Structures are given as structure tokens and as C-alpha cells.
Amino acid sequence: MRQPETVTQGWVALTDLTGKVLGHGELTQWFERRAVANRLLIRFDDGSLYDEELRFSQQGVFRLLSYRLVQRGPSFPTSVDVQFDRSGHYRARQRAPEAAEETESGTIVIPDDVSNGMTSTLLRNLPAGASATTHLLAFTPKPRILDLHLTPEGSDAFSVGRITGKATRFLVEPRVAGVPGAVATIIGKQPPSVRFWITPGRTPVFVRFEGPLYADGPPWRIEQAAPRWKP
């Protein structure tokens, strides 16, 4: 941990890669029972919902304590509701249209560095030029531990009015642990890679996400958004 997390609130826009707006969301973070709570809630224009909420501690290192993800609506081929906590207890439900609901629950040994929902936080804490590997807990709905590789690719220029800056572009690759990609596709689809853009320097800030939000999904873009004022 190099950049302790604090209370924050912001708004984001969800678009496709052509810039077509698909929805808007709110990111909130607060302190709760000696932990940091974080929630990203995106409401799609077609009525779909992406709701991710987690809690983590930050005593020298970041440690995920609990996680829940809900996604549903026409933008998602499968409705999903998954949750787990540090004890390893999990519950997962998913349902495709015109199909019976699939459920799984139980206990799994969770790595200390499991980082669901914390990718941008970890990227903001990486030293300049550094890579890292952590883990994810993915559900199909059976739980599976994935490696998560965080790798800087380069930097891209951006502007806000007359203000210019550069953001480091990171490739984020979830991979089935210990299994080559071709085999992983057969036994359980290899999760898609995504990219994050983080400003470097004293105050690292998330500026862009690009990639699918689910396996085989279209690439979407999440960026910061500004409030609009009524006349």
C-alpha cells in the first residue's frame, strides 16, 4: 500500500468504442467498521444493471474482506448474483434466458491476495514501470481461482480543455492458473483481458477502463463524467 484510500464519490459514463452512450454510473467509497467500502453502480439506458460492492482493509497492505456482484438486464446474456467473504464462504447464482437457474454455494480456500473489484486501486499503488500478479475468484457458477496479471504497456496523452496530461495504460489479464490458453478455453472459457488508464505521479487517478464486463462480451468503455446542471 503506497496510496491509502479515503472517502470519495464520482460519476462515470459507459459507452461503446464509438462513443455511443450506454449508461451512467456512480462510484462511492466510505469507511465502515474499520474497513473501506466501495460500490460501483451502473444503470444502463436499456434498464440493465451492473452493481459491484466490496470491502477491504488497508493496514500496510490491501486485503479484500467481502465482495458481491449483481448484473442483469438485456445488456447481459446471463443474470448473475455472486458473493463471497474472507472466510471462503460463497454463493453464486446465474440464469440465462429460458433456462433454469444454476446455483452453487459452499466454502473455498481464498488466496490472501484475491483482488476482485480492486484492480484500479492496485494499479494506483504500483511503482512506476512495475508489474504485479494477484488472484481473482471467478464463478461459472462453480468458483475458480484465476491468476491476474497487471502489466504496464505504455502511456497515452489526454486533455481536459487546455489542460494536457498522460496516463499509463495497463493490460489486465485474468488467466486460468496453470493451464495453457487453448486448454482453458475448452475446460472453462479463458476470461477476457481489459485495459485501465491511470495517471502517474503523486496523485494517481483512474481515467479510463476499456474491455468486456463479461466473458465473450463486447468491449465497453468507462470514463469519468461531469454533472450537468439544470438551467
What is the average per-residue confidence, as pLDDT, rounded to a whole number? 92
What count of domains describes the coordinates?
1
CATH architecture level-2 label: Beta Barrel
Please report the first level of CATH classification, the CATH class. Answer: Mainly Beta
The tally of helices reads 2
Q: What do we call the CATH topology? A: YmcC-like fold
Roughly what fraction of the amino acids lie in strands? over 45%
Task: Strand order, main sheet: write it out.
Answer: 8-7-6-5-4-3-2-1-14-13-12-11-10-9
General shape = globular
Largest sheet: 14 strands, antiparallel
**Which structural class do the helices and strands define?**
mainly beta
The radius of gyration computed from the alpha-carbon positions, rounded to a whole number of angstroms, is 18 Å
Q: What is the string of SSEs from the N terminus onward?
A: EEEEEEEEHEEEHEEE
Got a strand count?
14
The CA-CA distance between the termini, in Å, is: 44 Å
Residue share in helix? under 10%
Poorly predicted residue ranges:
181-187
